[in-house]
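Entry 14. Ran structure prediction on the chain below.
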Amino acid sequence: MRPLEKHGFTLMELLVTMAILGVLVAVAIPKFASSREKALLTAMKADLRNLANAEEAYAIQHFAYTTSFPATVYTVTAGVTGPTITLTADGWTASVGHGASSETCAIFAGTTPLAPAVDEGVPKCTQGQTGKSGKCRGGPC
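Output, structure tokens:
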């Protein structure tokens, strides 16, 4: 008689494999979640930079800023809400949000800042850019 041949994997081998895969998934998911949030913030900041260019181009032609643009001049990225544009005595402020994020971003021109923006013409988003230590993640803010 032939001895019995072993086919397949033992239960212990399968359990060890599942445990290793579980650890790898637990490490990978937070990395992907933070990448998604960074992408949303980048889209909002890009839309605000484009808005600043559109406002300045409008001001050059009309000698004033505006609170709205036709879709042929300025549109936001899919999912971005806003912008909410407010005219100030010497410029404008604007903010945007995203349907998939609790963060908001703002930009201003003139001397009236709109939180979280603190530097004229530079879009800034609420939280998200700094860690618990208060230092910027991934380069300058």
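The longest strand covers residues 80-88. Will compare against last week's run tomorrow.
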